[in-house]
């Protein structure tokens, strides 16, 4: 009886260890490489802002490619893969505008729900939207955040989902009239339009 309990306990510990290691492997989206993922994010964003009345444009765009990290402490890197992050910031002059702070998040939530996307809305204590997000079936997500500043972020899978790294990574022209000196793109990542 004692050996059975000990064997059962050892089996349970091994099962937990295997489950934990399986959960900490990299999340890889096979549908895109990093150039294609960024293009899909930009496309989703372009469709979304086309729905916004009196859209003021964007002040800046930031694109980052980060290592595909995984493991219990996220200290392992999957070579040849990365994660793509995209952020657009509204012009500072619009951060207090009720259209940008209140009407836009509500309009986007309505539009994204009508498109059949998975939508989440977070509200602050006053009932105002602090964040609205939509994730499409292909994993591309947009996150409209109302903080001190107002930003739209994009990622895959709602988090650090990895894609294959394209050695010829390129970025499309920015949306919303972002000037070149406010467009942060990984080195070598500007699309020359060809």
Automatic annotation (TrEMBL):
Residues 158-194 are annotated as: Disordered. It comes from Glycomyces luteolus. Residues 179-194 have a biased composition (Basic and acidic residues). Residues 1-22 form the signal peptide. The keyword Signal applies. PROSITE patterns: PROKAR_LIPOPROTEIN (PS51257). This is Lipoprotein. Keywords: Signal. It comes from the Bacteria. The lineage of its organism: Bacteria, Bacillati, Actinomycetota, Actinomycetes, Glycomycetales. The keyword Signal applies.
